[in-house]
Amino acid sequence: MPDWLRKLAQDRLVWFVVLGVALFGADRLLQARGQSVIKIDLPLVEKLVAQWEGQTERRPNARELDALIEGYIREEILVREAARLGLDTDDIIIRRRLAQKVEFLLSDEADKALPDEAALRRFFDENQDRYETPETLSWRHVFADSEARARELQTTLTSNESDWQNIGEPFMLNRQYARQSALELSRLMGTQFAAALFAENTGAWRGPVQSAFGWHVVKIDTRHAATQARFEPMIERVARDYQKAERQAALADAWRDLRLRYEVELLPVEGAGE
């Protein structure tokens, strides 16, 4: 061994520097690992449960608790990513806003790529049902307070409907509707009523028909056939829907990649084994 190397090996200052560098490196490694570990302990779970109870006035079940914990993990990961990217510098916005910033960044690339017509046509063909207009009804009704009363009103209206708007019981909603789909009618009057009405023919007063509100005598004035959508008139709407779907897919892919960078560590509850 050369003399200069032997002297360096015997120099305490050199060993002090070497040891310091080694400790600094080990500390940085531990810090880096600590940034990728998310600890779920009992106080945190109790805090999540308390927040849930404050909003719902009941304790969460097992599935809801799992969703709360996974929601916290997702939020914590996005917040740490926001801090890593420097989005939290001099920012007093709450952690959910920080997480939203990262989500915007994750999905931003999808908005930059404008689709060509071929891609839009494929998207349109794969999702054509959402652009088609379903069968709709234009109809009117008279409300009754009982099934028997509805039968009486049906007889009256069949013989003379000239004053149909003024007979029957008062009703909180409209007496006449135009171009309602089965889904819209179900939301308004109930699924049973919608099914019964779409099964009726046009041009005559029918009843009694039961809804979520009571009994009705109904008349279908016009049945509007479903129409098949065409691509050209809807190209702008299709483009918006395409970009929305691409953005959601990009965000889902980016989140899966991001989730794999983090390790979730469940801490044991003190005294659980006693």
Key attributes of the depicted protein:
single chain, 274 residues, alpha+beta, four-stranded antiparallel beta sheet, two-stranded parallel sheet, 56% helix, elongated
How would you characterize the overall build of this protein?
The structure is a single chain. This protein has ten helices and six strands; from the N terminus they run H-H-E-H-H-H-H-E-H-E-H-H-E-E-H-E. Helices cover 56% and strands 14% of the residues. The chain has a domain at 133-224: Chitinase A, domain 3 (Roll). The protein is α+β, with helices and mostly antiparallel strands and 274 residues long. The chain has helices at 3-10, 12-35, 42-56, 62-84, 95-112, 117-126, 147-159, 182-189, 191-198, 235-260; strands spanning 37-40, 136-144, 176-181, 205-210, 215-224, 263-266. The longest helix has 26 residues, at 235-260.
Task: Please summarize what this structure is.
This protein is an alpha+beta fold and 274 residues long.
Low-confidence stretches: none
> How do the strands line up in the largest sheet?
3-2-5-4
SS content category: alpha+beta
SSE succession: HHEHHHHEHEHHEEHE
CATH architecture of the domain at 133-224: Roll
**Largest beta-sheet characterization:** 4 strands, antiparallel
Q: What is the number of helices? A: 10
